[in-house]
Amino acid sequence: MQEEGGRASESWTGYVDWRNRPTLRGKHGGMLAASFVLVVEVLENLAYLANASNLVTYLTSYMNFSPARAATAVTNFMGTAFLLSLLGGFLSDVFFTAYHIYVSSAVVEFLGLIVLTIQARTSSLKPPKCRLLDGPCEELSGVKAAMLFGGLYLVALGVGGIKGSLPVHGAEQFDEDTPQGRQGRSTFFNYFVFCLSCGALVAVTFVVWVEDNKGWQWGFAVSTIAILLSIPVFLAGSATYRNKVPTGSPLTTIAKVVTGAILNTRAAYQNPSSAVMDMTSTPTKTFQTGEQGGSNSPKMATIQRPSGSLRFLNRAVERKPAHQALACTVQEVEEVKVVVGILPIFFSTIMLSCCLAQLSTFSIQQAATMDTRIGSLTVPPASLPVFPVVFIMILAPLYDHVIVPFARRATGTEGGITHLQRIGAGLVLSVVAMAVAALVEVKRKRVAFRTDLLDTGASLPITFLWVALQYLFLGSADLFTLAGLLEFFFTEAPPSMRSLATSLPWASLAMGYYLSSILVSLVNGATGSTGRQPWLAGANLNKYHVERFYWLMCVLSIANFLHYMFWALRYKYRLLR
């Protein structure tokens, strides 16, 4: 981050410190500042995932939810948490710095965890304990339901704000005007996923063990302490951070350009001979960018004419605006084109997120019916994610220190591997994961049939490690896609929209969780319409047809990958347009 000679004391343009003073080169930003963000991510993801990964068990065992209702409740909770990241990103771009959004969001999540801890500790705030297989149980309602969902959605609001602010805050610590800064930023995103996995490892091992053996009140308490500790750790780095100054609403720019294009098109048809506006040139910072999506050398350039892509939007600057408030610059038009261009990539990742949703729902329930012993150790089903988490922790540094340097030497480019290639690899792995999941479920049910245990809740004589296979493939898919998406959206988005754009991977997860709930409802509606038992309904998982659902997911994932390839092969990196 330091510059040679007299530039060492120059200030960063567009950035301030935590006291709203100019930030200085050599003093603010860099890997030291980003390191605080990485440590915070360990604590933050520990607090969130410790409960999310085991929430199905809590809802079915202590809140008397059916497996299908619990799966829907969990996917809705996690979907809402990730979708709210868009709100966190929007506020970071428009009104507040990512620094302030993180602190306030962590406080909100802390309050939600306090509510859940109190309910888990107090018997009178939970329904009477009951086994679903033994008959009807008292459903959660009234104040008890309000407390549960109130606590959960306070946590969701806090998680959303954190996901929408923390990654972009870390990425903003690096100078994109230098190759070292851009490589440092790429390393940050890889290690962000690594630290996310570190928090997940503690969550799905230690905290899940605490929840299953000591009580959920202690599990919620551990999460509460973790998110509380993250606040002083984050604040400890205040003196080193450079905080991007909010530059106004990106949605306003998008709305202005689109509205201007529509009105000017309408005016052109009504009065073809009206005057055409002279397009003034717009100076803007651009980079020479390689095919790999990595920028090589910064330079000042002048956008004199809008590009030939999405020509409809060019009409926003081709005529005099109907109102002065709709006056647009060529740069604004090009920025909106960038946003429109990345949306197909975003939509192509929703199906992968839908597959990932299965890790928190049916996969946990599958493992709960199997033999969860490894030697003399009994592993809680909710600890299954430990397998992909450990794999990610090994693969993330290996990718950054071995695979990427090798790819750089092989391709002669700064990035080595393109963001879109990395995302595509993740989508392929999701197809494999769903096929493996279907085959494992066929094997599990075959064992239940052969041992005459289909109608019981007894543990089946088959190891849960079979289910770990689908976790391994989906975890690998998540590593490739999440880090690739975070860096892709941050790099491609205009500076004024980076927080919002970097929230899109989390929004993809949200929509994937919602899509999972919708698919479950549609599948049950379609398969139960003839009077037969729906594929995914009832209290006994052995009577479900989860394998058919997984095959459906596999087919949809293949179609989604073809859809992704259509757009990825046509995509041109922003600074090559």
Automatic annotation (TrEMBL):
Domain of life of the source: Eukaryota
GO cellular component, one term: membrane
Cross-referenced InterPro entries: MFS_trans_sf (IPR036259), POT_fam (IPR000109)
Keywords: Membrane, Transmembrane, Transmembrane helix
Transmembrane segments: 29-50, 70-92, 99-120, 140-159, 188-210, 216-236, 338-359, 379-399, 420-440, 460-490, 511-529, 549-569
Topological type in the membrane: Multi-pass membrane protein
Subcellular location, record wording: Membrane
One Gene Ontology term of the molecular function aspect: transmembrane transporter activity
Main localization (coarse): membrane
PANTHER family from the UniProt entry: OLIGOPEPTIDE TRANSPORTER-RELATED
Family that this chain belongs to: Belongs to the major facilitator superfamily. Proton-dependent oligopeptide transporter (POT/PTR) (TC 2.A.17) family.
Name of the featured protein: Uncharacterized protein
